[in-house]
Design brief:
The protein is mainly α. It is built from three helices and no strands. The radius of gyration is 28 Å and the shape is rod-shaped.
Length: 136
């Protein structure tokens, strides 16, 4: 972006802008580090959730097969209770996946990209102000 740097007429104005840019850069750097860690955590969680969901789905299928083969009675009721528990576990895992899974991971990666672009813009601003300061 082009800035109206030519409007700067005093070194003190340049120094004030450079101090502001340094604070912005520090804030963005902190945000970047935080987002990198969260993104890494989401990536790890996403992989684990996918594997866990597949395991629960397999258990549900096996339990359904057992239920179909069992005669009426306490064993079949116990298997049906187990299936209900597994379905609830699958539901909870799928909700966690929405919040911490692949979709959330992509959102965090997007946020990280935005922060990196903001950092680059602050760097470009600093270069422009320093060049103007040197010219004054």
């Amino acid at each position: 972006m082009e800035y109206s740097i030519s409007n700067l007429t005093q070194v003190t104005d340049c120094n004030a802008l450079l101090a502001w840019a340094a604070r912005e850069r520090a804030d963005l750097n902190y945000k970047k580090i935080t987002n990198e860690r969260v993104t890494q955590k989401y990536a790890e969680t996403s992989e684990g959730l996918d594997a866990e969901i597949l395991g629960v789905i397999a258990e549900i299928a096996a339990t359904e097969t057992i239920i179909a083969a069992l005669p009426e009675g306490p064993s079949k009721e116990a298997a049906m209770d187990k299936k209900t528990t597994l379905e609830y576990r699958k539901f909870v895992l799928e909700n966690r996946k929405e919040n911490y899974g692949t979709v959330a991971l992509l959102q965090k990666e997007s946020e990280l990209g935005r922060v990196e672009r903001e950092m680059a813009e602050v760097d470009a601003f600093v270069i422009a102000v320093e060049a103007r300061k040197a010219a004054l």
